[in-house]
Amino acid sequence: MPADEIKIDKSFVMDMLTDREDEVIVDAIIGLSSSFSRKVIAEGVENAQTAARLMDLGCQFAQGFFYSRPQPFEDALVWASTFSWSNYEPAR
Q: What distances in angstroms separate CA 23 from CA 11, 16, 47, one per listed residue?
């Protein structure tokens, strides 16, 4: 089954700043995804520090409460229409 995207489970992402083994797993997944020309998406990004570290490791996409809580479709459209990256500057 072909796959264009690889998703990193939040169980690794959420603890990667405090658990070295989780960070190594995340880094390895990002590296393998890059080697196979696949997009990589990290789940469970809940703070700017995690977002920044993922970017440093080369993660292309992320999702989680840091960006938005789950919301009804209509509310998500409004959120997307007013979205600005300046509201989500990762701490470095």
A: 11, 4, 15
Cβ-count burial 41-73 (b if 16+ within 10 Å, e if not): bbebbeeeebbbbbeebebeebebebeeeeeee
Per this entry, what is the length of the chain?
Answer: 92
Q: Are 30 and 57 in contact (CB under 8 A)?
A: yes
* Rounded Cα distance, 85 and 27, in Å: 24
pTM of the shown model: 0.83
Domain layout of the chain by residue ranges: 5-86
User: To which H or E segment does residue 62 belong?
Assistant: strand 61-62
38-68, pLDDT tens digit by residue?
999 999 999 999 999 999 999 989 999 998 8
The whole-angstrom separation of Cα 64 and Cα 86 is 17
